[in-house]
Amino acid sequence: MFVVDDPLVVDGLVVRYGAKVAVDGLSFRLRPGEVYGLLGPNGAGKTSTIKAILGLVEPSSGSALVYGKRAKDDPVYVKSKIGAVLENPVLFDSLTPNEFFEFVASVRGVRDVDRIRALIEAFDLQTYMETPIAALSLGNKQKVAVVAALLHSPGLLILDEPFNGLDVRAVAIFKDILLKHIEKGGAVLFSTHIMEVAEKICTRVGIIHQGRMVDEGTVDELKQRIHGSSLEEILLKATQLEKDVAEALKGLG
Amino acid sequence: MDKSAKGRALVDSLYKEIVFQSYVASRLTGLPTAQVNRLIRNGLRSKYVVTGVYGFIFVLIMFATLTMSVDGRLIFPIEAFIWVFLLVFLPTLQLSYGASAGGQIREMLDTLPMTTAQIERLSARAILKTIDAPLAIAFSVLILGGILVGPLFTLSSVLGGVSSLGIAMLAILLLMRTFRKFNTTSRFGSVLRMVVVVPAIFVWVLTGYVANLKVVATSPTMIYTPILNLVGVSAGNSSALYLALIYTLIIGAVGYKSFLSASTLLLSPLVSTPQKAGRFKIRVRSQLASIVVTDLRQVVRSPRLIGFFVTPLVFVTILVYDLYFGGAVSRIGFDFVFLQDIVPFVFAISYMPYVLYLSELRGYSYFKILPVRNSMNVLSKMLTTLIVFFGLGSIMAYAAYLPLHSIYVFAAVYSLGLPLAASVLLTTVYFNYSINKMSMGVAGTLTSILFTVLNIIVLGIPVGFYYAGALLGAPPLMRVAYLCVASTVELIALLIVETRVKP
C-alpha cells in the first residue's frame, strides 16, 4: 500500500532528452528500513532516474515523491531530506575538506560539529583536512563525498556507485553506517554495477533496462522467478543480455 | 591514409577536444548527445567570432593611423605589437584553464606511442589552430594595409607582430612553469594567479608610454631598443631596420622553442600537492555567509574564475596609470576617465555571477543537490559581486579623489553598484530561462551575444543618464542621482521579471 510519507515513491516516471527516452514509465516504491537496489546495464536509465528524483532534470511526465513532495514543487524540502553520493561527484576542487564540510554543514544548518568530526575520523580523513580536494586521490575524494552526504543525517540516502575507490576499511565502515541508518528507519536507494555488493546489502532490487522496470523483488524472489543462482545471472537473464554476452565472447575467439 | 594526412587528422582531433574542454570546462558530465554536439559547434564557431572582432580592431587601428600626424603614424607598429600580443596571450591562457582542469587531454597524449618531441609538436599545432584564423586576419590586415599606410609601416608592423608572437609565447611558458611551483590554495599561489595578466597590463601601459614619446627617428632609443626601434623602421632608419630584423629572428626562435615547451604544459593539470598535515577546523556559518565565503574562495583560487578578479585589477592599474602618469584627469577630466576606465571595470565584474552560475550548472555539480532557495542564491551572487566591486572600486575612487579632492568621485564610482546589481538580476533571469529551456546554461553564440548586448544596455542606460545630466549642465552629484534613479527603475523591472522566470 502506498503511504504518502514513504521516503520515495516513483510513479510512471518518464524522462526524455529530446527524442531520446531515457526513462520510460518507471514505477517503484522505497519504504523506511529498506535498501533498494536499482540495477541495470549501462544506459538503462538509472542515472536519469536519480537525476529526476534529485530535481536535476525535470520529468516529462510521472512523478518522483520524496517524503510526499516533488523536487519541482519544493526543492529545498526534498534536497534537505536527501543525502546523495553520485558517481564521479564533482566537488569544489579548489576547497580543502575543512572548507568543503564547513560549507555543506552551513548550508544544511548542521550545528553538531562533533558528528562531523566523528565521521571524518571514521573515514580516516583527518590528515587530509588542509589538502585541496583537487590533490586528493579518487578514494579520498569519494570519502569526502560520503561524509558530506551523511553529516545532516538524512532520511533518504541516494548512492550511485558509492564504494568507488574506497579502501576495505572505508567500505566496512560505510556498510555499518548504512545498516544503522536503516535500523533507525532510514531508506537507501542504491545503484551499482557490482552485483556481489548489491546481493549482500539490498533488501529489494529493481532491474531496469531501456528505461523500463523489467522485474522487481527481493534477491531470493528473483532467484526463484528467473532461475538464476546469482544476481549477475539474474540481471543477464532478465535483460535478455545473456545471448549478447555469449555472441560477443564467441567473436573474441 | 599517408603520414601527413594522419598527422593532420590527429591535430584536428586534438584541436576539437581542446576547444570543447576549454569552452565548457572539463568536468561536464551526463549531457545528452545533442548538447555535446552543440557545445562543440559553439566552441568551434567562437574562433570565428574572435576573428571578426580582431579583424575589426585591426582595421580600426589602420584607419586611426591614417588620421594621425606623421609622427603619430610612426607608433603604428607598436599598436600592432600590442594587439597581436593580447590576441595570443589572453586566449591561450584562457584555453589552458579549461583544457588543463581535468587533465584528460594530457593523460591521453601520454598513452600515445609518440616521443616527447612529437607530442610537443602535436600539442603546439592543435593549440595554434585555436588562434590561426584571428592571427591570419590580423597579419592580412597589416600586410594589405600597406597599400594605405605605405610599405615601411607594413614591414615594421609585421616585424612587430612576429616579435609579439615570440614574446607572448615566452611569457606563457614562464607563467606555466611558475604556476606549477605553487599550490592552488596557498596564499602566494592565489596572489600569483591574480597577477597572471601582468604581462598584458605592461603591454597595454606601453601604448600610453609610446603615445607620450617624443619620436626622434635617429635617437638611440629608436635604433637600438628592441620593439621601440620598430618606430625607427617606420621612419625609414636603415640601422633600426637591420637591428629589428635580427631582434625579430632571435625573439621568434626563442618564442618558437618556448611555444613547443609550453604547449604540453598548457594542457597539463595544475595538480595541487598535499600540504601540511591537516587539523579539524570547521566554523558553521549562516547559509548566506557560507555561500558568499565559498564563492569568494573559488574566485581567488579557481583558474577558471580568477580572471574575473584579475580583469578588474587590470582596470584599476590602468586607471592609476592614466591618472598619475598619463595625466588623464588634468587633460580630459574625470567624466572621461569615468567612461574610459571605471565603466569598463564594472562591465568586467558584471560577468562574475555569470561564471559562478555556469560553474553550478556543470553536470553533477555539487551545489545543485544542496537545499538552497533560488532567492538565497541570487542574494549570495549579488553580495559576492558587490564585495569585489566595492573593494576594488574603492581603490579606483581613492585614486581619482587624490588629484581632484572632490568627494563626489566616491559617489560616482559607488553609484555604479546599482546597475551592477541590476546586471546580476539579468544574469539570474538568463540562467533560469536557460534551465527552463533545458539548455543547462550552455549558450549558443547568438545567445551569448544577445546576453552581452542586454548586459551593455542594463549597465549603459544609467551611465547614459549620468552623461545626459552632464550635457544638461547638472552639478556632479545631480548626475549621480540621475544614474541612481534610472538604475533603481531597472532593478525593480528586473526583480519583477526574475520572480516570473523561476528555474
From TrEMBL, chain A:
InterPro entries: AAA+_ATPase, ABC_transporter-like_ATP-bd, ABC_transporter-like_CS, ABC_Transporter_VariousFunc, P-loop_NTPase
SMART domains reported for this sequence: AAA
Keywords: ATP-binding, Nucleotide-binding, Transport
Residue span, ABC transporter domain: 8-235
GO molecular function, one term: ATP binding
The name this protein goes by in its record: ABC transporter domain-containing protein
Classification of source organism: Archaea, Candidatus Marsarchaeota, Candidatus Marsarchaeota group 2
